[in-house]
Amino acid sequence: MARDPIQPPPPDPSAPHGAPAGGPTEEDTRPFLDDPPGLGWVPDGLPGFERCTLGLDTDEQGQNLVTVVRPRTDAARDPARRPILSVHGWSDYFYNAPLAHAFEAAGYAFHAVDLRHYGRSLRTGQTPGWTDDLARYDADLEAAFETIAQDHPLPPILMGHSTGGLIAALWADRNPGRLAALVLNSPWLEMQGSAGVRLLAKSIVGPVSAMKPYAMLTLPRIDHYWRTLSDQAEGEWDLHPLWRPPHAFEVPAAWLSAVLSGHRAVAGRLDVTVPILVLVSARGHRGTSYAEAMLTSDIVLDPDAMARRSLRLGDRVTVHRLPDALHDVFASPASVREAAGAATLTWLGAYAPPSASEAESGAPDDGAG
């Protein structure tokens, strides 16, 4: 079930990597960034964006960092705009420029975060995705919100995808009154599988995590989801080979134990006081062999389970199911993600409009923000 702890793998020269048009940039050809905290906003490898690296605590693997990413536009600094902060999922990072542009065009100030040990925040010698407690990400989010608030005083919208959705929901529960709204994109709120499978996972992961927290769990290595996303396969996204590898990060026992602890908290019911929008695919698909149906369904989590479990997050939950959506709804084919964006903006227009003047003129008086 587990093997010895490992450090991040060296670059794999055989790993596919679609460089942006015009050839690879410096960041495309080196495995990790090395920005020290304190540089402020600097140009990012994602064209038209900039990043700010923030220092956190230090542990046995070195200093932890969190990186905020935003468009390099005047709108991104407009204090009249309501900010959005987007949190990625497991084995992931921010790369979705069209998502940022869509929210900016609608009047919001879009930001994304690469959490500690992920993407732009991952450093040589650190275990990718490592944490032993999801509450540790509170520091990441606090640092990001503090930086965002320097330009944007309005209460923010927090978005989260998959594991990032679980992290966002738990943070919102622990921090009432801080947000205007919560948007969850296929949030991982429950271990997939039967009750017996969930019980078995808990009974195995807990003891292994306690004895060897860095031990890597032996799980199937399947690249089907990566194939639906990457422009090197059937998808359309240029994915960094180390930040979003084809077979995903290897899974530390302590990380999965932390996720299961978060699931137990959700099962016991949270009390998120702001309006919540949950976006999930209309259908899921399971299979050990790649199939065309995987291009139009969630092949990572069970959409039905997510929809049911999301009702335990708070009293004002809207569930929107999208035909043909992938696990990452906003990384689905263009027509699907555009429908998801339109639905999200319509919902936000009612509960957390992009400016204070719009909020005063038309939003429901339901305590949001």
Automatic annotation (TrEMBL):
The keyword S-adenosyl-L-methionine does not apply. Residues 1-40 are annotated as: Disordered. Residues 80-281 form the Serine aminopeptidase S33 domain. Keywords: Hydrolase. The keyword Hydrolase applies. Residues 15-24 have a biased composition (Low complexity). One of its GO terms (molecular function) is hydrolase activity. Residues 1-14 have a biased composition (Pro residues). PANTHER family: HYDROLASE ALPHA/BETA FOLD FAMILY, PEROXISOMAL MEMBRANE PROTEIN LPX1. This is Lysophospholipase, alpha-beta hydrolase superfamily. It comes from Micrococcus luteus (Micrococcus lysodeikticus).
